Amino acid sequence: MFVPVIAGLGTAQPPSASQDELWEGFFSRHFSGTTRSLAQRIFANSGVTRRQAAVNPLLEDVSDWPTERRMRRYQVEALPLGKEAVGRALTAAGLSAGDIGLFIVCSCTGYATPGLDILLARDLGMAADTQRMVIGHMGCYAALPGLGAASDFVTARGRPALLLCAELTSLHIQPSSARVDTQQIVSHALFSDAAVAAVVVPGGSGYALREVTAVTDTSTADHMTWDVTDAGFRMGLSPKVPQVLSKHVRGLVDDLLARHGVTSSEVDGWAVHPGGPRILNVVERELALPPLGLAASRATLDEHGNCSSPTVLLILDRLGRATPSARRIVMLAFGPGLTLYAALLDRQD
């Protein structure tokens, strides 16, 4: 049986701006009245120092754009960003686009047909028999079911698979309003843009994907939403999300590790999606992690914000570069459902 291995990662991000620049140059005017002081506190305590934006609000205000215009712009901006990430991942894996048997694209911030999967397959020169899969509207955890699908394909077919997660959250700034809406303030303070690609191959050197697993608490489905409106996509983010995570994350991780005869003390790295500072604090507490256990997640939040689906892959890339000796890594991501996904990776040489 073929062992699926992550043989290459490639990242691509648009230009960045500091959180202070974004606040002073745009959001301090976007929020008004009593909302402004609340928004300023949330921005200051977001855990974010810099963020990236393909459509920078300091240069271009999209908040009053209709959804159709935002979707057209998504294709313009996402295509070169995705091409850059994929190119780097293929180079890292020592493969060409023609070697790929399955191409998976995850995104919840833009839709069109033909989509990124078809346009990138065309522009990069993928084979005509390359299979494609689009994973949409799963949000921040989409990279893990994407890796799961890639892993299953590699195991069954013995051919390489390619995963691309590309998100342009900057296209979905909502219209300004005098009404206090804490959920919108939080989302505008956290989210960022990025594209990350991962090449999964049958065997070889890299991180072997041992298992991808999940748990969904459907009783809390309304706690995290992403609604398509006439003014772009609108985030719903309940303050109860960390509380729900605290109920499920320990059991999910313990069960995953137990199936492989591993304890949490034997995990060398934790790639935990930084949905926000409170979420990281909850995971750290529930898993009884050491003080620096989530250092890579916090550093990614600080430097890049919450990029939705690519974020956990950004953290994995950071861990691989900062701690190349790490043998075992657990990935965790959370999103609508309310859903928790986890994956266990083992380095093999």
TrEMBL record:
Q: Name one GO molecular function term.
A: acyltransferase activity, transferring groups other than amino-acyl groups
User: Where are the catalytic residues?
Assistant: C140
Which Pfam families does the UniProt record give?
A: Chal_sti_synt_C (PF02797), Chal_sti_synt_N (PF00195)
| Keywords, alphabetical | Transferase
Segment forming the signal sequence: none
SUPFAM superfamilies per the UniProt record, alphabetical:
Thiolase-like
Q: Which InterPro entries match?
A: Chalcone/stilbene_synt_C, Chalcone/stilbene_synt_N, Polyketide_synthase_type-III, Thiolase-like
Q: Domain Chalcone/stilbene synthase C-terminal: where?
A: 220-345
- Chalcone/stilbene synthase N-terminal domain location: 9-200
Q: Any one Gene Ontology biological process term?
A: polyketide biosynthetic process
The entry assigns this protein to a family as follows: Belongs to the thiolase-like superfamily. Chalcone/stilbene synthases family.
This protein is called Type III polyketide synthase
Q: Which organism is it from?
A: Micromonospora arida
The major lineage groups are: Bacteria, Bacillati, Actinomycetota, Actinomycetes, Micromonosporales
